[in-house]
Amino acid sequence: MHLANRDTNYGWIAISLHWLTALVVIALFVLGLWMVDLDFYNPWYHDAPYLHKSVGVLLMAVMLFRWIWRLISVEPQALPTHGSFTRLAAKSAQRLLYLLVFAIGISGYLISTAEGQPLQVFNWFALPAYPLEIENQADIAGSIHLWLAVSLISLASIHALAALKHHFIDRDATLKRMLSAN
Amino acid sequence: MITWIKQTTIVAGLAMISSYSYAAPVNYEIDAGGMHASVNFKIKHLGYSWLAGRFDKFGGNFVYDNEDPSKSKINVNLDTASVNSNHAERDKHLRSKDFLDVNKYPTAEFVSTSITENGNDLVVKGDLTLHGVTKPIEIKAEKIGEGKDPWGGYRAGFSGDTSIKLADYGITYNLGPASTEVFLQLNIEGIRK
């Protein structure tokens, strides 16, 4: 039971953060697609966006922590069976996944705060608006938010399929290393 | 001495001309630059309160004849994407296909067809084009005032009210039985062209 990464393994903190992020990203994606089509009299008309935004902001905080944790942690070495293409592809995909999550968070923030209103996170605190005041900001940020989210889910699916390929076809430890630190 | 008299005469003459109120039909441009005008709306929220907003970008012209208002006419056009109810998410929704569909219908327009005087009021009839649908509406208007401004121009201002049923314009998103009608209020000040 080790929390920090080791040269050959991810620690429990990195593993927990990975799966927490995966779960929340998928949940936010589904919730986001669902909530925009709710009709005015649906009981979730206000609560669904409230939940989506609040959880989204908290996810940004988790991702920020995860990024810092990654920076200060030992990076487990790639499996010796992974060739240079596999290593490059895996690494690029991971970086892009991080980038997309942050970009989606920022674009989401820019929708809700487009007209100067703060972004309320549960009833805990409110993020103040940043006065960019771009014309049609909410619409532009909204369509960027959607397309980045679709890109993220697509890339995450490829990332997951690649992990399954390593597990079932190559029969290496790629997926196992992300399931258990031991 | 003669020069002095000449100057005085010219000044007095100019003063007489400019103090003269314009009787014939006069062309005005709505002062959207100085924003002495507004296009406001309100609609009931659930039947419990008024939700108010406005369109930030609009323009137009009018002709006003203070001796024979029936010779007057007006046209106003507005940028539907400029809808502003002071709430980013709601405004985004109002611009979407559920309501104004601003990508497809970027402008709305009112063109008067007749103006009649009714006591102190003016009844402005005309066609409103909104969401791709053109329908006749009637605006109850009143003149607020007219006269010289302190900067060498001449202005006239009006206020008008009307209401429209959203469904008449093909906007059928269900906001509840109390919220099918939108009330529009127009405040305009024109500068003589």
TrEMBL record, chain A:
SUPFAM superfamilies: Transmembrane di-heme cytochromes. The chain crosses the membrane at residues 12-35, 50-69, 96-114, 144-164. Residues 9-180 form the Cytochrome b561 bacterial/Ni-hydrogenase domain. It is a multi-pass membrane protein. It is found in: Cell membrane. Its cofactor is heme b. InterPro entries: Cyt_b561_bac/Ni-Hgenase, Cytochrome_b561_oxidase, Di-haem_cyt_TM. The keyword Hydrolase does not apply. Keywords: Cell membrane, Electron transport, Heme, Iron, Membrane, Metal-binding, Transmembrane, Transmembrane helix, Transport. The keyword Metal-binding applies. Belongs to the cytochrome b561 family. This is Cytochrome b. It comes from Thiomicrorhabdus heinhorstiae. The lineage of its organism: Bacteria, Pseudomonadati, Pseudomonadota, Gammaproteobacteria, Thiotrichales.
